[in-house]
């Protein structure tokens, strides 16, 4: 057919960060199922500079623009290419996909299953072959033989006992080790010869073995749940979870300096230690801790997330993960690989949205309801740029239930935008004393303090609560967010379900607001973040509202990260301000009087948050809780980071099972459930109301 004819032409090929894009002459060899490229058309008669086998490959148009696409070979190698326009890209993508499908189907028809192959894996090569040279101490048999374990015949019991589950766990550990050896042995085979690392059957064996281990782990989890259900109430408390002891000592995992909240009591049964640990954990959650801002120091941590190396090296892991997902699948319970994590918790990310406290405090300084609404919109739109660390779409740690994060900001009063009519000393001396101890002496300070606290209040569904307040300016914000992740093919979408409430107590105004969706695009190449959706900000008392659209990039043309919005007075339907631009670069505000203001987010000053040193933090504060994972990621030790991350997640699962068995409800520390939302236990509006009541009674 015409579609199977060879095609050729110039495309741009992305090489690396240093070299960037280069023009290369590409040839699609339909008969051989190869995509080859040369330095130029004149060198076409020479050996190709590069070749990709298209059988089993994935051809993906990029979300970045209408010209770029990627070719991901079954071997894990990838070409990132760019055509001159959208039409040419579609031409190449269509022909590549037809060729790929043809040769992939041919392999399935013409090659027998692995078990009927005539050669023996143990007999391939000699002592001088590359595969043997790389691993001189082991031969192919030790890697390609998989042990089979059977339980003694006839031993059938109505309920699987804990020691049997221990046996199963050990068998699975052995199988996981053998599967890893199998993968390594395949990757150590030569790239040419009778048996190569690119052999289609061996590539299929790699994928199916990984999928099999995932399936076995799911089955083992079902056995655990079944066992807990059958044993509920029939054994002494704690006995049924003795087999759930994690391999890594959590006492050591949480240890930090002299402080240690999980002592390793070796002489006690594992089940007792586990139950006591969970009981202590719940006890920790009952009493809120008052954090003294004077103990917090300016944060010196500066973890940029611009490193692409790990993503490039782990491409095969991403491809395998994608092969296990389905369109629309909820990713809440999917464990993502450690190397795509950024070095902070989601709770700390919410705090980083507050990195412009001067704009936050300036909201209440607006002299009219219209000005205060516009100031809130300005602050809201400037918060997302700093909330994202770098351009790479890495994922913050999933907070563990009960995890908390505390910080504060000190903002010089001279740097907060004010109006001539605003009175910075609005509090009378009696009010200063009546409000709270936090207000004592504040009139003598030349800075405002904004305090922040966040807590993971639920695990399934994953819900976070966060609260910030500036006592001196009588303003606070309370929000709860449920993050729902879905797989969208070449993207991952995160819906931020929930609502925030800004309270300006000096004016008696409340502003409700929502959050946009987030998308990780181009997850097979260099992932990047995009925001999308419509958000609304509304103040019932004043009748002002704002509607903001975060535009996702269209398939053809268009700008990235574009936003448009307007502020209007609902009663008259009058637009008082319009905004447009990009949420991560430049914003343009046009006011009803004809004036225009530009905000360059890349030059906007960022106030560093203040955080307590690790040795003064509690065991469930984010930075101390995740410190070993963060340190390992900084050192580039992905395996060690994964080990520490797995220990934390196992601890969370153990405690969740224990609470289910004992029917013990989870106790939050700082946030209380109110209707469908979560509210800080001591919000400023309650404190101010109580102070005013006491003052009235005193008079």
Element layout with pairings:
Layout lengths: L6 E8 L6 E9 L4 E5 L11 E4 L4 E4 L6 E5 L5 E5 L3 H25 L19 H5 L5 H5 L17 H26 L12 H32 L18 H4 L16 H17 L10 E2 L10 H5 L1 H9 L17 E5 H7 L4 H6 L6 H19 L7 E3 L6 E9 L16 H7 L11 E12 L4 E8 L4 E13 L4 E13 L4 E5 L3 E5 L6 E12 L4 E8 L10 E8 L4 E9 L3 E6 L4 E5 L9 E2 L10 H4 L1 H8 L3 H25 L8 E4 L2 E4 L3 H15 L1
Helix pairs in contact: 4-5, 13-17, 15-16
Description:
It is a single chain. This protein is an alpha+beta fold and 699 residues long. Among the domains are: 7-107, Pleckstrin-homology domain (PH domain)/Phosphotyrosine-binding domain (PTB) (PH-domain like); 297-417 and 446-531 and 622-687, no CATH class. Helix content is 31%, strand content 25%. Strands 11, 12, 13, 14, 15, 16, 17, 18, 19, 20, 21, 22 and 23 form a 13-stranded antiparallel β-sheet that branches. The chain has a 7-stranded antiparallel β-sheet with strand order 4-3-2-1-7-6-5, covered by helices on one side. Strands 8-24 form a two-stranded antiparallel sheet. Strand 6 (68-72) and strand 7 form a beta hairpin. Helix 4 runs antiparallel to helix 5 (200-231), helix 13 packs across helix 17 and helix 15 packs antiparallel against helix 16. Residues 117-136 have a biased composition (Polar residues). It catalyses: a 1,2-diacyl-sn-glycero-3-phospho-(1D-myo-inositol 4-phosphate)(out) + a 1,2-diacyl-sn-glycero-3-phospho-L-serine(in) = a 1,2-diacyl-sn-glycero-3-phospho-(1D-myo-inositol 4-phosphate)(in) + a 1,2-diacyl-sn-glycero-3-phospho-L-serine(out). It is found in: Golgi apparatus, trans-Golgi network membrane; Late endosome membrane. Residues 104-136 are annotated as: Disordered.
